[in-house]
Amino acid sequence: LDNNCNGKIDDGTQSELDIVIAIDYSGSMNGNIGWLTQDLTTWLSKIPLTQDGGTEIRVAVVGIPGPDGIGVDRTVVLLKNMSTPQEVITYLKTISNASATSDEPSLDALYQLALPTNPLKVNWTAGSRRSIAIFTDEEPQSYMNPPLTSQQTQNVLKDASTRVYVFTIHYAWLLSGWSTSNLKSGQGMTDSLSGIISEGTCK
Q1: Can you tell me the distance from the alpha carbon of 21 to that of 108, in angstroms, rounded to the nearest whole number?
Q2: Sheet with 57-63, side-by-side order of all strands
Q3: Residue 108: phi, psi to the nearest 5?
């Protein structure tokens, strides 16, 4: 990766960017899980490797909620902690079905991922840049007490210097002040996913 923005691929194995993929595995996403897994697999497989075979990017997976048989409704669950892109590809391929749940704690996930107390126990790389890509077909939701607002969540993410990329078909995210990309397989999603790497590693 071009960490110093000089147009050349740099050496080294230290992870420069940690990415959390937050996926809505609720029942309404059943028709999207197959193509989404394939698109994520294609994207992750293209992340450049350094000369000695190590990767400078690590990836984790969070369920909002978890897939069938993992986690409970309205709960954020860490499905795969920070790993190499290839290890995450292998994990994603083990999930074929969403759950029967109907509530998606999307704001709760973003908030918990940004908290310095790290309630989800994500093994972030010290000093790394952090990005979250969230995939959902529903509006932003919180089931904390009291419920979070989008503004509260955005403030915590800003304090944590964490970039967020929202992939959705629901207009409420845009109306709530989030920058969004369309949750649809194709070149648009490919370009947006590529942006996570370029923006996270070169600034």
Answers
A1: 14
A2: 77-83, 57-63, 17-23, 129-136, 162-168, 180-182
A3: -60, -40
pLDDT 10s digits, 156-172: 999 999 999 999 999 99
Tokens of 117: 């107390």
Taking alpha carbons only, the member of 55, 35, 34 closest to residue 46 is 55
Secondary structure class of 131 (helix, strand, coil): strand
Question: CA dihedral defined by 118, 127, 106, 108, rounded to 10 degrees?
Answer: 30
Q: Mind listing the pLDDT tens digit for each residue in 88-138? A: 999 999 987 788 788 999 999 999 999 999 999 999 999 889 999 999 999
Q: Name the token pair of 167.
A: 């992939």
Nearest C-alpha neighbor of 197 from the set 86, 56, 84: 56
Q: Are strands 77-83 and 57-63 parallel, antiparallel or unpaired?
A: antiparallel
